[in-house]
Structures are given as structure tokens and as C-alpha cells.
Amino acid sequence: MLFTIAAILFVLWLLGLVVFKVSTGLIHLLLVIAIIVGLIQLFRGRRV
User: Fold this and answer.
1) Which residue of 1, 20, 26, 33 is most buried, as measured by CB atoms within 10 A?
2) Angle between helices 2-18 and 25-44 (to 10 degrees)
3) Domain parsing of the chain, residue ranges
4) How many CB atoms lie within 10 A of CB 3?
């Protein structure tokens, strides 16, 4: 679940960076959130 959210946020960041060529704080905030969520997922690991 967290990995999916991180992937969506990363895609939104790329979309904003490439398509709209906007370098606002919101885009960078999305990237930071995606990285944090990805790290949380990495350190938690999958519990089966």
C-alpha cells in the first residue's frame, strides 16, 4: 500500500517537472513525501 502511494507521488512529481515545467515547492514536497514513504516501506519490509 505504501509502495503504491510512493509510486503515485513519484509519477505526479515527474509529470509536474516534465510536462508543466514548474519548479514550485509543491512538486519538491511530493518528491520528498514519495522518498519518505518508500524508505518506510523498505525498512518495514513485507509482513506475510
Assistant:
1) 33
2) 150
3) 2-44
4) 13
Cell of 40: 518506510
Using the 8-state DSSP alphabet, how is residue 37 labeled?
H
Q: What pLDDT score does 11 carry?
A: 85
The three cell numbers locating residue 19: 510536462
- What single DSSP character describes residue 19? T
Three cell numbers at 24?
Answer: 514550485
Distance CA 2, CA 35 (A): 11
Distances from the Cα of 46 to the Cαs of 7, 8, 20, 43, in angstroms? 17, 19, 36, 9
Per-residue pLDDT of the chain (48 residues; tens, 9 = 90+): 778 888 888 888 777 777 766 556 677 777 788 888 888 888 887 665
